[in-house]
Amino acid sequence: MKKVLAVVAVILATACLAAGCGAQEVMAYSNPSEIIETDANGEFIIQIALPSNPSTGYTWIATYDTAKLELVEDTYEADDSQAMVVGAGGTQYLRFKALQNGEATIKLDYQRPWEKESIDQKVFTVNIE
Fold first, then answer.
1. Strands 69-78 and 59-64
2. How far apart are the first and last CA of the chain?
3. Each residue of 38-69: pLDDT tens digit?
């Protein structure tokens, strides 16, 4: 009986992967000149990885069309080699999901949230089909 269940599990897992119900691949983008192509129907997640250093108060703040994109997650990972160093940087990951067809822009300002001026800005273009 255990062998039959194991064979059935393998067959179901293979069928699920062939049908596209497995884990979705998440593409990471960090170059603003690269146009991001995605599909709204496939619920493709866009992950933008950029250097960041929140220990100094600076973070990437996103402005985007909420009708076309949803911010799913905003996380930060310290560099492994600098994990215990005060003021050391890392990478901020902004994960988006495409909601609706069309072109969208994600404007990212690197700034302290309480200040009006950013010290860097990146603009990404997203084509959703």
1. unpaired
2. 47
3. 988 776 677 888 888 888 889 999 999 999 99
Using CA atoms, how far residue 70 sits from 74, 82, 92, 101, in Å, is 11, 31, 17, 13
24-128: CATH number: 2.60.40.2020
**pTM score, two decimals?**
0.73
Domain locations in the chain as residue ranges:
24-128
CA-closest candidate to residue 62, choices 89, 29, 38: 29
In angstroms, what CA-CA distances link 55 with 27, 35, 74, 84, 126?
27, 31, 16, 12, 30
Name the helix (H) or strand (E) containing 105.
strand 102-111
CB distance 76 to 88 below 8 Å: no
How crowded is residue 59: how many other Cβ atoms within 10 Å of its Cβ? 19
